[in-house]
Amino acid sequence: MNTTCHSEYLKLKAVFIKSAKNAFISNIKLESEWQELNYLSLPKYCASLEEYRAFENYLRSNDIEINHFPANESTSIDSIYCRDASIATDFGMIICNMGKNGRANEPKVQEHVYRDNNIPILGTINAPGTVEGGDVAWLDKKTMAVGHTYRTNEEGIMAASTIPLANASTASCELFTATSLGNLDGSSYIS
User: In total, how many domains does the chain have?
Assistant: First the structure.
């Protein structure tokens, strides 16, 4: 059984998340970081905790196993968006290199958690390359789209394309760049 999966459409069975409590840590941390990270307004700490509890309850009610990334003072409040720091594949994790300086420590923290849980690390995106997992989408079992954005640069995309997915003789991956990817009224589009 796979410990990771790069499906964007199959039923979710287990997930790593970072709760509002573990990401935001305190009102003081929120107040000191929200503007620099370009939030539109200061998140409400207590309301965020309550909303996240409801989110976790929803996951549990659908029989989804929840694993938590721990609180870590070296990461920013943006670490609540934990998908950005790594890319899940059927064979293990790819550790990203964040395009936003304020998030530079997140990938290393996640890597430690994956290693502690015996989840294979397939490779790491290193500078000057940057890739954020939020700019990545698996279109099918063999096609990964990577958006060329202000957070993901060409060097990072090239580095991601060189990371072998498990045994190269049994697995291969097509990679292409996209400037936009979405779904409008059930019709997929890529440009």
Answer: 1
